[in-house]
Specification:
The structure holds two protein chains of two kinds.
Chain A (H helix, E strand, L loop, with lengths): L5 H34 L10 H35 L6
Chain B lengths: L1 H5 L15 H5 L12 H35 L15 E7 L7 H17 L3 E7 L4 H16 L13 H16 L11 E4 L1 H16 L26 H7 L46 E4 L10 H9 L1 H17 L3 E3 L2 E2 L1 H5 L5 H7 L2 H4 L5 E2 H4 L34 H4 L3 E3 L5 H15 L3 H9 L20
Parallel strand pairs in B: 1-2, 1-3, 3-4
Antiparallel strand pairs in B: 5-8, 6-7
Helix pairs in contact in B: 3-4, 3-10, 3-16, 4-10, 5-7
The chains are: A mainly alpha, B alpha/beta.
Protein backbone atom coordinates (compact mmCIF):
# COMPACT_ATOMS: atom_id res chain seq x y z
CA UNK A 1 0.00 0.00 0.00
CA UNK A 2 2.85 2.36 0.77
CA UNK A 3 4.53 1.98 -2.57
CA UNK A 4 1.63 3.48 -4.51
CA UNK A 5 1.43 6.98 -5.87
CA UNK A 6 -1.62 9.23 -5.60
CA UNK A 7 -3.53 8.03 -8.63
CA UNK A 8 -2.90 4.42 -7.78
CA UNK A 9 -4.09 5.08 -4.26
CA UNK A 10 -7.31 6.45 -5.62
CA UNK A 11 -7.71 3.52 -7.95
CA UNK A 12 -7.11 1.18 -5.02
CA UNK A 13 -9.66 2.96 -2.86
CA UNK A 14 -12.18 2.83 -5.65
CA UNK A 15 -11.73 -0.86 -6.16
CA UNK A 16 -11.97 -1.56 -2.46
CA UNK A 17 -15.18 0.40 -2.26
CA UNK A 18 -16.60 -1.45 -5.20
CA UNK A 19 -15.66 -4.75 -3.64
CA UNK A 20 -17.23 -3.83 -0.35
CA UNK A 21 -20.36 -2.67 -2.06
CA UNK A 22 -20.53 -5.91 -3.97
CA UNK A 23 -20.08 -7.93 -0.80
CA UNK A 24 -22.76 -5.99 0.93
CA UNK A 25 -25.16 -6.46 -1.94
CA UNK A 26 -24.46 -10.19 -2.02
CA UNK A 27 -25.18 -10.41 1.67
CA UNK A 28 -28.32 -8.39 1.29
CA UNK A 29 -29.69 -10.40 -1.57
CA UNK A 30 -28.87 -13.60 0.26
CA UNK A 31 -30.77 -12.33 3.23
CA UNK A 32 -33.76 -11.35 1.18
CA UNK A 33 -33.74 -14.62 -0.70
CA UNK A 34 -33.55 -16.74 2.42
CA UNK A 35 -36.18 -14.90 4.38
CA UNK A 36 -38.52 -14.71 1.43
CA UNK A 37 -38.22 -18.40 0.74
CA UNK A 38 -38.67 -19.34 4.35
CA UNK A 39 -41.47 -16.99 5.31
CA UNK A 40 -43.56 -15.87 2.40
CA UNK A 41 -45.77 -18.70 1.27
CA UNK A 42 -49.16 -17.23 0.53
CA UNK A 43 -49.59 -15.63 -2.85
CA UNK A 44 -53.35 -15.13 -2.78
CA UNK A 45 -53.02 -11.50 -1.67
CA UNK A 46 -50.45 -8.88 -2.39
CA UNK A 47 -50.02 -7.89 1.25
CA UNK A 48 -48.08 -9.80 3.86
CA UNK A 49 -49.97 -11.69 6.52
CA UNK A 50 -49.21 -10.87 10.10
CA UNK A 51 -47.70 -14.32 10.42
CA UNK A 52 -45.46 -13.77 7.48
CA UNK A 53 -44.46 -10.36 8.64
CA UNK A 54 -43.48 -11.63 12.05
CA UNK A 55 -41.51 -14.40 10.45
CA UNK A 56 -39.65 -11.99 8.18
CA UNK A 57 -38.78 -9.74 11.08
CA UNK A 58 -37.43 -12.63 13.08
CA UNK A 59 -35.55 -14.02 10.13
CA UNK A 60 -33.82 -10.72 9.39
CA UNK A 61 -33.04 -10.23 13.05
CA UNK A 62 -31.52 -13.65 13.32
CA UNK A 63 -29.45 -13.24 10.20
CA UNK A 64 -28.10 -9.82 11.16
CA UNK A 65 -27.32 -10.73 14.73
CA UNK A 66 -25.69 -13.92 13.62
CA UNK A 67 -23.45 -12.12 11.18
CA UNK A 68 -22.66 -9.49 13.78
CA UNK A 69 -21.49 -12.14 16.19
CA UNK A 70 -19.50 -13.80 13.46
CA UNK A 71 -17.88 -10.51 12.58
CA UNK A 72 -16.84 -9.92 16.17
CA UNK A 73 -15.21 -13.31 16.40
CA UNK A 74 -13.37 -12.71 13.14
CA UNK A 75 -12.10 -9.39 14.43
CA UNK A 76 -10.81 -11.00 17.58
CA UNK A 77 -9.08 -13.75 15.67
CA UNK A 78 -7.64 -11.19 13.31
CA UNK A 79 -6.22 -9.18 16.18
CA UNK A 80 -4.78 -12.31 17.73
CA UNK A 81 -3.18 -13.22 14.44
CA UNK A 82 -1.66 -9.78 14.01
CA UNK A 83 -0.24 -10.08 17.51
CA UNK A 84 1.34 -13.45 17.30
CA UNK A 85 2.11 -13.55 13.60
CA UNK A 86 0.49 -16.93 13.21
CA UNK A 87 -2.81 -18.66 13.50
CA UNK A 88 -4.12 -18.59 17.06
CA UNK A 89 -4.23 -21.82 18.94
CA UNK A 90 -1.06 -23.18 17.39
CA UNK B 1 -32.64 -70.15 20.11
CA UNK B 2 -36.25 -69.21 20.67
CA UNK B 3 -37.75 -71.86 18.38
CA UNK B 4 -35.60 -74.52 19.84
CA UNK B 5 -36.69 -73.78 23.34
CA UNK B 6 -40.33 -73.51 22.40
CA UNK B 7 -40.50 -76.94 20.82
CA UNK B 8 -41.57 -78.67 23.98
CA UNK B 9 -44.36 -80.66 22.35
CA UNK B 10 -41.82 -82.80 20.58
CA UNK B 11 -40.49 -84.13 23.85
CA UNK B 12 -38.86 -87.52 23.48
CA UNK B 13 -41.20 -89.05 26.10
CA UNK B 14 -44.02 -89.47 23.60
CA UNK B 15 -44.00 -92.21 21.01
CA UNK B 16 -41.98 -91.06 18.04
CA UNK B 17 -44.19 -90.38 15.08
CA UNK B 18 -42.25 -91.12 11.97
CA UNK B 19 -44.77 -89.32 9.82
CA UNK B 20 -44.62 -85.98 11.55
CA UNK B 21 -47.13 -83.41 10.49
CA UNK B 22 -49.10 -84.94 7.59
CA UNK B 23 -49.77 -81.57 6.02
CA UNK B 24 -46.09 -80.72 5.93
CA UNK B 25 -45.27 -84.17 4.68
CA UNK B 26 -47.74 -83.81 1.83
CA UNK B 27 -46.06 -80.57 0.88
CA UNK B 28 -42.79 -82.40 0.68
CA UNK B 29 -41.13 -80.53 3.54
CA UNK B 30 -38.63 -82.41 5.65
CA UNK B 31 -39.65 -83.52 9.13
CA UNK B 32 -38.41 -81.07 11.77
CA UNK B 33 -37.47 -82.52 15.09
CA UNK B 34 -37.77 -80.03 17.93
CA UNK B 35 -35.69 -80.67 20.98
CA UNK B 36 -33.67 -78.77 23.53
CA UNK B 37 -30.10 -78.06 22.55
CA UNK B 38 -27.41 -79.83 24.47
CA UNK B 39 -26.51 -78.91 28.04
CA UNK B 40 -23.41 -76.98 27.01
CA UNK B 41 -25.28 -74.96 24.46
CA UNK B 42 -27.95 -74.16 27.03
CA UNK B 43 -25.34 -72.90 29.46
CA UNK B 44 -23.70 -70.85 26.76
CA UNK B 45 -26.93 -69.29 25.57
CA UNK B 46 -28.15 -68.63 29.10
CA UNK B 47 -24.99 -66.76 30.08
CA UNK B 48 -24.64 -64.86 26.84
CA UNK B 49 -28.32 -64.07 26.70
CA UNK B 50 -28.63 -62.81 30.23
CA UNK B 51 -25.50 -60.67 29.93
CA UNK B 52 -26.64 -59.18 26.66
CA UNK B 53 -30.13 -58.47 27.85
CA UNK B 54 -28.86 -56.87 31.07
CA UNK B 55 -26.55 -54.72 29.04
CA UNK B 56 -29.25 -53.66 26.59
CA UNK B 57 -31.67 -52.95 29.40
CA UNK B 58 -29.08 -50.82 31.14
CA UNK B 59 -28.14 -48.84 28.08
CA UNK B 60 -31.77 -48.25 27.20
CA UNK B 61 -32.49 -46.83 30.63
CA UNK B 62 -29.25 -44.89 30.63
CA UNK B 63 -30.31 -43.15 27.45
CA UNK B 64 -33.70 -42.41 28.93
CA UNK B 65 -32.22 -40.95 32.09
CA UNK B 66 -29.93 -38.74 30.09
CA UNK B 67 -32.76 -37.64 27.85
CA UNK B 68 -34.81 -36.77 30.87
CA UNK B 69 -32.20 -34.34 32.17
CA UNK B 70 -31.48 -33.01 28.72
CA UNK B 71 -35.16 -32.21 28.27
CA UNK B 72 -35.22 -30.65 31.68
CA UNK B 73 -32.66 -28.00 30.72
CA UNK B 74 -33.37 -27.70 27.02
CA UNK B 75 -35.51 -24.60 27.39
CA UNK B 76 -32.36 -22.64 28.23
CA UNK B 77 -30.92 -23.34 24.80
CA UNK B 78 -33.81 -21.51 23.17
CA UNK B 79 -33.30 -18.28 25.05
CA UNK B 80 -31.78 -15.49 23.04
CA UNK B 81 -28.57 -13.78 24.02
CA UNK B 82 -27.81 -10.25 22.86
CA UNK B 83 -25.26 -10.35 20.06
CA UNK B 84 -22.71 -8.39 22.05
CA UNK B 85 -22.71 -10.81 24.96
CA UNK B 86 -20.70 -13.96 25.16
CA UNK B 87 -22.66 -17.08 26.06
CA UNK B 88 -22.35 -18.54 29.52
CA UNK B 89 -19.06 -20.31 29.91
CA UNK B 90 -18.53 -22.84 32.63
CA UNK B 91 -15.14 -24.19 33.51
CA UNK B 92 -14.63 -27.93 33.53
CA UNK B 93 -11.83 -29.38 35.60
CA UNK B 94 -10.53 -32.72 34.40
CA UNK B 95 -7.55 -34.59 35.72
CA UNK B 96 -6.17 -38.01 35.00
CA UNK B 97 -7.32 -40.32 37.81
CA UNK B 98 -4.60 -41.80 40.02
CA UNK B 99 -2.68 -44.51 38.26
CA UNK B 100 -4.29 -43.85 34.90
CA UNK B 101 -4.26 -41.47 31.98
CA UNK B 102 -6.49 -38.62 31.04
CA UNK B 103 -8.67 -40.79 28.85
CA UNK B 104 -11.10 -42.16 31.48
CA UNK B 105 -11.84 -38.69 32.78
CA UNK B 106 -12.38 -37.35 29.30
CA UNK B 107 -14.57 -40.26 28.33
CA UNK B 108 -16.66 -39.84 31.43
CA UNK B 109 -17.11 -36.19 30.60
CA UNK B 110 -18.14 -36.91 27.04
CA UNK B 111 -20.46 -39.70 28.03
CA UNK B 112 -22.34 -38.30 30.99
CA UNK B 113 -21.77 -34.57 31.32
CA UNK B 114 -21.38 -33.11 27.88
CA UNK B 115 -24.83 -34.08 26.53
CA UNK B 116 -26.51 -32.08 29.24
CA UNK B 117 -24.27 -29.07 28.83
CA UNK B 118 -24.97 -29.13 25.12
CA UNK B 119 -28.71 -29.48 25.66
CA UNK B 120 -28.59 -26.43 27.93
CA UNK B 121 -26.75 -24.39 25.32
CA UNK B 122 -23.66 -23.81 27.42
CA UNK B 123 -20.15 -23.03 26.36
CA UNK B 124 -17.29 -24.38 28.42
CA UNK B 125 -13.58 -24.31 28.78
CA UNK B 126 -11.61 -27.20 30.13
CA UNK B 127 -8.68 -27.11 32.49
CA UNK B 128 -7.02 -30.48 32.07
CA UNK B 129 -4.41 -32.11 34.20
CA UNK B 130 -2.22 -34.96 33.07
CA UNK B 131 -0.19 -34.97 36.25
CA UNK B 132 -0.91 -34.35 39.86
CA UNK B 133 -0.87 -30.59 40.33
CA UNK B 134 -1.70 -29.56 36.76
CA UNK B 135 -5.23 -28.57 37.61
CA UNK B 136 -4.04 -26.71 40.68
CA UNK B 137 -1.55 -24.75 38.60
CA UNK B 138 -4.07 -24.05 35.84
CA UNK B 139 -6.75 -22.74 38.17
CA UNK B 140 -4.33 -20.65 40.20
CA UNK B 141 -2.99 -19.11 37.01
CA UNK B 142 -6.50 -18.26 35.91
CA UNK B 143 -7.31 -16.56 39.20
CA UNK B 144 -4.04 -14.65 39.18
CA UNK B 145 -4.84 -13.37 35.73
CA UNK B 146 -8.20 -12.21 36.98
CA UNK B 147 -6.55 -10.44 39.87
CA UNK B 148 -4.10 -8.69 37.58
CA UNK B 149 -6.97 -7.63 35.41
CA UNK B 150 -8.64 -6.17 38.47
CA UNK B 151 -5.70 -3.86 38.98
CA UNK B 152 -3.24 -5.68 41.18
CA UNK B 153 0.39 -5.22 40.28
CA UNK B 154 3.31 -7.55 40.27
CA UNK B 155 6.13 -6.48 42.53
CA UNK B 156 8.74 -7.72 40.11
CA UNK B 157 9.13 -7.90 36.37
CA UNK B 158 7.25 -10.76 34.71
CA UNK B 159 9.41 -13.51 33.33
CA UNK B 160 9.70 -14.17 29.64
CA UNK B 161 8.29 -17.67 29.46
CA UNK B 162 4.67 -17.02 30.27
CA UNK B 163 4.33 -13.77 28.44
CA UNK B 164 3.40 -15.06 25.03
CA UNK B 165 0.24 -16.82 26.15
CA UNK B 166 -0.78 -14.07 28.52
CA UNK B 167 -0.47 -11.45 25.84
CA UNK B 168 -2.76 -13.37 23.55
CA UNK B 169 -5.43 -13.74 26.19
CA UNK B 170 -5.11 -10.14 27.31
CA UNK B 171 -5.33 -9.02 23.75
CA UNK B 172 -8.53 -10.94 23.21
CA UNK B 173 -9.88 -9.42 26.37
CA UNK B 174 -8.95 -5.92 25.23
CA UNK B 175 -10.45 -6.37 21.78
CA UNK B 176 -13.67 -7.53 23.39
CA UNK B 177 -13.77 -4.60 25.73
CA UNK B 178 -13.16 -2.17 22.92
CA UNK B 179 -15.92 -3.57 20.74
CA UNK B 180 -18.31 -3.65 23.68
CA UNK B 181 -18.57 -7.43 23.96
CA UNK B 182 -19.45 -8.31 27.51
CA UNK B 183 -19.14 -11.53 29.40
CA UNK B 184 -22.18 -13.46 30.50
CA UNK B 185 -23.85 -11.52 33.28
CA UNK B 186 -24.96 -14.47 35.41
CA UNK B 187 -23.18 -17.22 37.29
CA UNK B 188 -20.57 -19.05 35.31
CA UNK B 189 -19.94 -22.09 37.45
CA UNK B 190 -17.20 -24.67 37.84
CA UNK B 191 -17.54 -28.39 37.33
CA UNK B 192 -15.00 -30.59 39.07
CA UNK B 193 -14.74 -34.22 38.07
CA UNK B 194 -13.61 -36.60 40.78
CA UNK B 195 -12.20 -36.36 44.25
CA UNK B 196 -8.60 -36.02 43.09
CA UNK B 197 -9.50 -33.06 40.91
CA UNK B 198 -11.53 -31.64 43.76
CA UNK B 199 -8.52 -31.67 46.05
CA UNK B 200 -6.47 -29.88 43.47
CA UNK B 201 -9.28 -27.47 42.79
CA UNK B 202 -9.41 -26.45 46.44
CA UNK B 203 -5.65 -25.98 46.46
CA UNK B 204 -5.79 -23.96 43.29
CA UNK B 205 -8.46 -21.67 44.68
CA UNK B 206 -6.41 -21.01 47.79
CA UNK B 207 -3.23 -20.52 45.85
CA UNK B 208 -4.85 -18.18 43.37
CA UNK B 209 -6.56 -15.99 45.91
CA UNK B 210 -4.23 -16.12 48.88
CA UNK B 211 -0.92 -16.59 47.16
CA UNK B 212 1.30 -13.85 45.78
CA UNK B 213 1.16 -12.77 42.18
CA UNK B 214 4.89 -13.12 41.71
CA UNK B 215 6.28 -16.52 40.93
CA UNK B 216 8.44 -18.00 43.68
CA UNK B 217 12.17 -17.46 43.22
CA UNK B 218 13.77 -20.51 41.66
CA UNK B 219 16.88 -20.57 43.90
CA UNK B 220 14.92 -20.48 47.10
CA UNK B 221 15.97 -22.63 50.00
CA UNK B 222 13.29 -25.04 51.17
CA UNK B 223 12.89 -23.64 54.65
CA UNK B 224 11.81 -20.13 53.63
CA UNK B 225 8.14 -20.14 52.91
CA UNK B 226 7.34 -18.66 49.49
CA UNK B 227 4.97 -16.14 51.03
CA UNK B 228 7.96 -14.29 52.39
CA UNK B 229 9.13 -13.43 48.92
CA UNK B 230 6.28 -10.98 48.45
CA UNK B 231 6.22 -8.66 51.41
CA UNK B 232 5.86 -5.71 49.05
CA UNK B 233 2.53 -6.94 47.83
CA UNK B 234 1.03 -7.90 51.16
CA UNK B 235 2.66 -5.57 53.63
CA UNK B 236 0.38 -6.70 56.41
CA UNK B 237 1.36 -10.32 55.96
CA UNK B 238 4.97 -9.74 56.86
CA UNK B 239 4.53 -9.64 60.58
CA UNK B 240 2.26 -12.65 60.58
CA UNK B 241 4.48 -14.81 58.39
CA UNK B 242 7.48 -13.95 60.50
CA UNK B 243 5.95 -15.31 63.63
CA UNK B 244 4.17 -18.39 62.42
CA UNK B 245 6.93 -20.42 60.73
CA UNK B 246 9.05 -20.38 63.89
CA UNK B 247 6.53 -22.44 65.76
CA UNK B 248 6.55 -25.16 63.17
CA UNK B 249 8.35 -28.40 63.83
CA UNK B 250 11.60 -28.60 61.87
CA UNK B 251 10.44 -31.37 59.53
CA UNK B 252 6.87 -30.85 58.34
CA UNK B 253 5.60 -33.78 56.32
CA UNK B 254 4.69 -31.97 53.11
CA UNK B 255 8.07 -30.74 51.88
CA UNK B 256 7.70 -27.51 49.94
CA UNK B 257 8.22 -28.52 46.32
CA UNK B 258 11.27 -27.11 44.65
CA UNK B 259 10.58 -25.39 41.38
CA UNK B 260 11.43 -27.73 38.55
CA UNK B 261 11.53 -27.40 34.82
CA UNK B 262 8.77 -29.91 34.26
CA UNK B 263 5.06 -29.16 34.40
CA UNK B 264 3.17 -28.24 36.51
CA UNK B 265 4.38 -24.89 37.71
CA UNK B 266 5.43 -24.95 41.35
CA UNK B 267 2.83 -23.65 43.78
CA UNK B 268 3.19 -20.03 44.79
CA UNK B 269 2.05 -20.70 48.32
CA UNK B 270 1.93 -23.78 50.55
CA UNK B 271 -1.08 -24.71 52.70
CA UNK B 272 0.68 -23.84 55.93
CA UNK B 273 1.00 -20.22 54.81
CA UNK B 274 -2.69 -19.71 54.15
CA UNK B 275 -3.50 -18.12 57.52
CA UNK B 276 -0.60 -15.71 57.29
CA UNK B 277 -1.34 -14.29 53.87
CA UNK B 278 -3.81 -11.51 53.33
CA UNK B 279 -6.68 -11.77 50.91
CA UNK B 280 -6.58 -9.50 47.87
CA UNK B 281 -9.13 -6.68 47.66
CA UNK B 282 -10.66 -8.16 44.53
CA UNK B 283 -11.81 -11.28 46.37
CA UNK B 284 -15.55 -11.09 45.92
CA UNK B 285 -18.09 -11.83 48.62
CA UNK B 286 -19.08 -15.04 46.93
CA UNK B 287 -17.17 -17.07 44.42
CA UNK B 288 -18.55 -18.82 41.39
CA UNK B 289 -20.43 -21.88 42.65
CA UNK B 290 -18.87 -25.25 42.01
CA UNK B 291 -20.19 -28.71 41.35
CA UNK B 292 -18.20 -31.77 42.36
CA UNK B 293 -19.15 -34.72 40.17
CA UNK B 294 -18.11 -38.25 41.08
CA UNK B 295 -15.76 -40.09 38.77
CA UNK B 296 -16.01 -43.79 39.57
CA UNK B 297 -12.72 -45.25 38.50
CA UNK B 298 -11.53 -48.59 39.72
CA UNK B 299 -8.38 -50.30 38.53
CA UNK B 300 -7.13 -53.81 39.04
CA UNK B 301 -7.88 -57.33 37.89
CA UNK B 302 -9.22 -58.50 41.23
CA UNK B 303 -11.83 -55.77 41.11
CA UNK B 304 -13.36 -57.27 37.99
CA UNK B 305 -16.68 -58.24 39.66
CA UNK B 306 -17.22 -54.70 40.92
CA UNK B 307 -16.24 -53.29 37.59
CA UNK B 308 -18.61 -55.59 35.71
CA UNK B 309 -21.39 -54.66 38.10
CA UNK B 310 -20.74 -50.99 37.49
CA UNK B 311 -20.55 -51.58 33.78
CA UNK B 312 -24.02 -53.08 33.88
CA UNK B 313 -25.59 -50.41 36.10
CA UNK B 314 -24.45 -47.29 34.37
CA UNK B 315 -28.03 -46.06 34.30
CA UNK B 316 -27.85 -45.00 37.95
CA UNK B 317 -24.64 -43.16 37.33
CA UNK B 318 -26.11 -41.42 34.30
CA UNK B 319 -29.15 -40.41 36.29
CA UNK B 320 -27.30 -39.04 39.29
CA UNK B 321 -24.68 -37.29 37.18
CA UNK B 322 -27.35 -35.87 34.93
CA UNK B 323 -29.20 -34.61 37.94
CA UNK B 324 -26.27 -32.73 39.37
CA UNK B 325 -25.14 -31.37 36.02
CA UNK B 326 -28.67 -30.15 35.40
CA UNK B 327 -28.37 -28.18 38.63
CA UNK B 328 -25.26 -26.54 37.24
CA UNK B 329 -26.88 -25.78 33.92
CA UNK B 330 -30.01 -24.31 35.47
CA UNK B 331 -27.90 -22.41 38.03
CA UNK B 332 -31.08 -21.33 39.72
CA UNK B 333 -30.04 -22.37 43.15
CA UNK B 334 -26.83 -22.77 45.07
CA UNK B 335 -26.04 -23.10 48.72
CA UNK B 336 -22.91 -22.38 50.70
CA UNK B 337 -20.93 -25.30 52.00
CA UNK B 338 -21.58 -26.13 55.59
CA UNK B 339 -19.07 -26.11 58.36
CA UNK B 340 -19.62 -28.07 61.50
CA UNK B 341 -17.95 -29.75 64.42
CA UNK B 342 -19.76 -33.04 63.86
CA UNK B 343 -18.05 -33.51 60.55
CA UNK B 344 -14.67 -33.19 62.16
CA UNK B 345 -14.65 -36.69 63.57
CA UNK B 346 -15.67 -38.22 60.27
CA UNK B 347 -12.95 -36.58 58.27
CA UNK B 348 -9.42 -37.72 57.79
CA UNK B 349 -8.81 -39.81 60.86
CA UNK B 350 -5.38 -40.72 59.52
CA UNK B 351 -4.27 -37.17 59.36
CA UNK B 352 -5.89 -35.81 62.46
CA UNK B 353 -2.88 -36.22 64.78
CA UNK B 354 -0.58 -34.81 62.16
CA UNK B 355 -2.73 -31.78 61.76
CA UNK B 356 -2.28 -30.50 65.23
CA UNK B 357 1.46 -30.81 64.94
CA UNK B 358 2.06 -29.26 61.61
CA UNK B 359 -0.64 -26.64 61.47
CA UNK B 360 0.60 -23.17 62.24
CA UNK B 361 -0.78 -21.15 65.10
CA UNK B 362 -3.63 -19.62 63.16
CA UNK B 363 -5.00 -22.94 62.03
CA UNK B 364 -5.12 -24.57 65.44
CA UNK B 365 -8.44 -22.96 66.16
CA UNK B 366 -9.77 -24.40 62.94
CA UNK B 367 -9.05 -28.04 63.66
CA UNK B 368 -12.23 -28.36 65.68
CA UNK B 369 -14.46 -27.14 62.90
CA UNK B 370 -14.56 -29.11 59.69
CA UNK B 371 -15.63 -28.10 56.27
CA UNK B 372 -18.07 -29.93 54.11
CA UNK B 373 -15.65 -29.48 51.22
CA UNK B 374 -13.27 -31.93 52.84
CA UNK B 375 -15.85 -34.69 52.83
CA UNK B 376 -16.97 -34.18 49.25
CA UNK B 377 -16.69 -37.45 47.30
CA UNK B 378 -14.67 -38.89 50.14
CA UNK B 379 -15.64 -42.43 49.17
CA UNK B 380 -13.66 -42.28 45.97
CA UNK B 381 -10.40 -42.09 47.83
CA UNK B 382 -10.66 -45.74 48.88
CA UNK B 383 -10.72 -46.83 45.27
CA UNK B 384 -7.63 -44.98 44.26
CA UNK B 385 -4.64 -46.76 42.96
CA UNK B 386 -2.03 -47.23 45.64
CA UNK B 387 0.42 -45.02 43.80
CA UNK B 388 -1.64 -42.06 44.90
CA UNK B 389 -1.00 -42.88 48.54
CA UNK B 390 2.66 -43.80 48.43
CA UNK B 391 4.91 -41.12 49.83
CA UNK B 392 7.52 -39.49 47.69
CA UNK B 393 10.83 -41.27 47.38
CA UNK B 394 13.86 -39.59 48.86
CA UNK B 395 14.96 -37.63 45.84
CA UNK B 396 11.51 -36.78 44.62
CA UNK B 397 10.09 -33.32 45.16
CA UNK B 398 6.80 -33.88 43.41
CA UNK B 399 3.85 -32.08 44.98
CA UNK B 400 1.27 -34.49 46.36
CA UNK B 401 -2.05 -32.76 46.85
CA UNK B 402 -3.89 -36.09 46.50
CA UNK B 403 -2.37 -37.79 49.50
CA UNK B 404 -2.14 -34.75 51.71
CA UNK B 405 -5.13 -33.67 53.77
CA UNK B 406 -7.14 -30.77 52.52
CA UNK B 407 -6.51 -27.42 54.12
CA UNK B 408 -9.32 -24.95 53.90
CA UNK B 409 -8.99 -21.37 54.88
CA UNK B 410 -12.18 -19.87 56.22
CA UNK B 411 -11.91 -16.87 53.91
CA UNK B 412 -12.11 -19.16 50.89
CA UNK B 413 -14.28 -21.84 52.44
CA UNK B 414 -17.04 -19.47 53.36
CA UNK B 415 -17.16 -17.97 49.91
CA UNK B 416 -17.59 -21.26 48.11
CA UNK B 417 -20.99 -22.61 47.26
CA UNK B 418 -22.44 -25.63 45.58
CA UNK B 419 -25.04 -25.94 42.87
CA UNK B 420 -28.20 -27.65 43.94
CA UNK B 421 -31.50 -28.53 42.37
CA UNK B 422 -34.48 -27.06 44.06
CA UNK B 423 -36.80 -29.49 45.76
CA UNK B 424 -39.40 -30.94 43.44
CA UNK B 425 -37.04 -30.81 40.50
CA UNK B 426 -37.15 -34.57 40.10
CA UNK B 427 -40.90 -34.62 39.69
CA UNK B 428 -40.66 -31.65 37.37
CA UNK B 429 -38.07 -33.42 35.24
CA UNK B 430 -40.19 -36.57 35.07
CA UNK B 431 -43.18 -34.51 34.00
CA UNK B 432 -41.29 -32.65 31.29
CA UNK B 433 -39.89 -35.92 30.06
CA UNK B 434 -43.31 -37.55 29.94
CA UNK B 435 -44.66 -34.63 27.94
CA UNK B 436 -41.78 -34.80 25.52
CA UNK B 437 -42.26 -38.51 25.09
CA UNK B 438 -45.87 -38.03 24.06
CA UNK B 439 -44.62 -36.03 21.10
CA UNK B 440 -42.37 -38.83 19.96
CA UNK B 441 -43.40 -40.74 16.85
CA UNK B 442 -44.95 -44.06 17.75
CA UNK B 443 -43.31 -47.33 16.84
CA UNK B 444 -45.70 -47.77 13.94
CA UNK B 445 -44.80 -44.34 12.63
CA UNK B 446 -41.13 -45.12 12.94
CA UNK B 447 -41.51 -48.34 11.00
CA UNK B 448 -43.57 -46.55 8.39
CA UNK B 449 -40.91 -43.96 7.97
CA UNK B 450 -38.16 -46.51 7.87
CA UNK B 451 -39.89 -48.55 5.21
CA UNK B 452 -40.90 -45.51 3.24
CA UNK B 453 -44.66 -45.69 3.77
CA UNK B 454 -44.97 -42.38 5.52
CA UNK B 455 -48.34 -40.82 5.82
CA UNK B 456 -48.47 -37.78 3.63
CA UNK B 457 -48.60 -34.70 5.81
CA UNK B 458 -49.95 -31.37 4.77
CA UNK B 459 -48.24 -29.69 1.91
CA UNK B 460 -45.82 -26.90 2.70
CA UNK B 461 -48.23 -24.09 1.91
CA UNK B 462 -50.92 -25.54 4.18
CA UNK B 463 -48.73 -25.64 7.19
CA UNK B 464 -48.51 -22.79 9.63
CA UNK B 465 -45.12 -21.48 10.48
CA UNK B 466 -43.64 -22.71 13.65
CA UNK B 467 -43.37 -20.08 16.32
CA UNK B 468 -45.40 -17.53 14.36
CA UNK B 469 -48.51 -17.89 16.46
CA UNK B 470 -47.40 -15.63 19.25
CA UNK B 471 -47.70 -12.39 17.32
Amino acid sequence: MDGLNASEQREFQGRMEKKQMKEFMTMYSNLVQRCFDDCVNDFTTKSLHSKEEGCVMKCVDKYLKGSERLGQRFQEQNAAMMQSGQLPGR
Amino acid sequence: MAEKLLGKDAAPASVPKPEGNPALRMMGLPRFKFKLPSRNWLIFWAITGSFTSTLLYDRYHKKRAQRKWCNFVSHLAKETVPPTMMPRKTTIFLAAPPGDGLRPARDHFHEYIKPILVAGGLDWEVIEGRKEGDVRAGLAEKIRKLRKRNGEKLSQEPTEESEEKENLDDLLYEVRQRSGVTEWNGVQGDLVLGRHTWKEYIRGLHEGWLGPLDPPRPAESPDTPPADSSPAEHPSSEAASDSSPKEEPPAPDPPPPKPAKITPKPPYITPKDYPSSSAPPSLAISMSPSLPVPLPHLLGFLNTPTRVYRFLTRRHLADSTGRSVAALVLASHSRPYTQSAELASAIDPDFAPNDTNTAPEGAVTQTSEAWEQEAVLKKEEKEWHKSAREPNKDEETRERPWREPMTIDSRIGQRMSQFELESGADEEAAKVDAEKRLEDPSLVDKIRKWTGFEKQGKKGWDMGLEGAEDD
